[in-house]
Amino acid sequence: MKSTPCTTRRSSFRSTWSRNLGDDLAHYPAVLAEVNAERAQRGLAPLSFSAVSLLVAASLAYSVSFLGRAFLVMRRRDL
Amino acid sequence: MLLRIEWLKASRRRALWVALAAFAAFTAVPAIERVRSAQGNPNAVHALPESWPDILQSATGLGPLFTGVLMILLFAPEFAWRTARQNVMDGLSRERFYAGKVLLLAGLVGLVTATTVLIGAGGTLLSPGGGGPSFIRPADFSYMGGLALGMLVFGSAGMMLSVHLRSSGSALAILLLYLFVEEALARLITGT
User: Fold this and answer.
1) Is A3:A27 a contact under the CB 8 Å cutoff?
2) Prediction pTM value
3) A positions 6-65 inside 8 Å of B (CB)
4) In whole numbers, what is the pLDDT of chain B averaged over residues?
5) Are B162 and A77 a contacting pair, CB within 8 Å?
6) pLDDT in tens, A27-48
């Protein structure tokens, strides 16, 4: 099973999230560089890395919010 | 010191080793399949660094799940068994106790990632044929980062559920119920 770079699959579901994240982080920069090289030849503006960055930021935000919530509950409640 | 406390507590829990062994078994099955396929078919190559995406992909579904489950199994009983209370009574502040659990989470992510990497890389040693000149490529590190991030999300969710529910049974039930609902929703949305 060969992994493929994919910029259209977007899901917050567990079964695909981690795989998308890994696939995109691994392959997206190379694919994006190729696409941007073609776009530069045609005089078009380069595309950005925002789609993957957004997924990474969302993952980190989820983690921080879960950990923050755990911290607040631990401080407030009796052990 | 915190790390030592957490290691002492975690290493004596049979649940950690049983869950880790189950994860290793689930990860080993696709690795064995790939080795057998490479041995039977000269065109099928299972070697590093080319096979890293396949190796890491086999853990993308189970890795985060096991991290969340392990976090719950190791953390939630501390409230029922009063070890959390005892730690604080013995002089550990709540903040340091919490920091210890964050270290435990980081350790679990590292342990599950290391298990995946070791089993996958071990499989390539048994496989005929060689790979490229390098052992690992920068893109493979990125893939590992994505996998670790997925584990971090589920591990932190497990930690939050443990603190809220203070019972490993209830926390596991909520986590698994969420996964069932999520799976059903995913099938509905994707139409598979």
Assistant:
1) yes
2) 0.82
3) 11, 13-27, 29-30, 56, 59-60, 62-64
4) 87
5) no
6) 666 777 777 888 888 888 877 7
